Amino acid sequence: MPKGDSGRTEFRVIDAMDHPQSGRILRVKLKDGPAPSVRSLKGTTLRARSPRGDEGQVTVLGFSLTGGKVTDARFRETGRLDLHVEEESDPPVSLRWILSAGA
C-alpha cells in the first residue's frame, strides 16, 4: 500500500531505551500515512502494537534532542523522530513495534 492511502499515520520503532528521569525514548521511522507536524505530536496518545499482537498506548511528552533540533523539515527529510514517551503498556514498547495515530 503506498504511503498515505490508509488515512492513518504509522511509525515503526527502530530503537527504544529508558529515559534517565522518566519514561522512554523511542526512535521511530515513518512507515505509512501522512507526516504529522512535530508540534501536533506533542501530547498525543498513540496506539502501540507489538509483532506478537501485544497492545498498549504511549503518550508523547516531547522529543529527544540528541540528534539535533527537531523540525518539520528535518522530519519530512529523514522520516525519523526520537520521541520521549510515557508508556501504558506491558511489556514495554520495543523494537519493531508499530505506533499508530489517526482514523
SSE map:
Blueprint: E1 8-18, E2 24-32, H1 38-41, E3 45-49, E4 55-63, H2 72-78, E5 80-88, E6 98-102
Antiparallel strand pairs: 1-2, 1-6, 2-5, 3-4, 3-6, 4-5
Describe this structure in words.
The protein has 103 residues and is mainly β. The chain has one domain (12-102). Helices cover 11% and strands 47% of the residues. The chain contains two helices and six strands; from the N terminus they run ββαββαββ. It has a six-stranded antiparallel barrel with strand order 1-2-5-4-3-6. The chain is globular, with a radius of gyration of 13 Å. Residues 1-5 have low confidence and may be disordered.
List keywords for this structure.
single chain, 103 residues, mainly beta, six-stranded antiparallel beta barrel, 2 helices, 6 strands, disordered N terminus
**Which range does the strand content fall in?**
over 45%
Q: What's the arrangement of strands in the largest beta sheet?
A: 1-2-5-4-3-6
Q: Classify the secondary structure makeup into a structural class.
A: mainly beta
Give the terminus-to-terminus CA distance: 16 Å
Low-confidence stretches: 1-5
User: Any idea what the radius of gyration is?
Assistant: 13 Å
Helix content: 10-25%
Taken together, the total number of domains comes to 1
Shape: globular
Taking all residues together, what is the mean pLDDT? 90
Please write the string of helix (H) and strand (E) elements: EEHEEHEE
**Number of helical stretches of at least 4 residues:** 2
Largest sheet composition:
6 strands, antiparallel, barrel
Using DSSP, what is the number of strands? 6
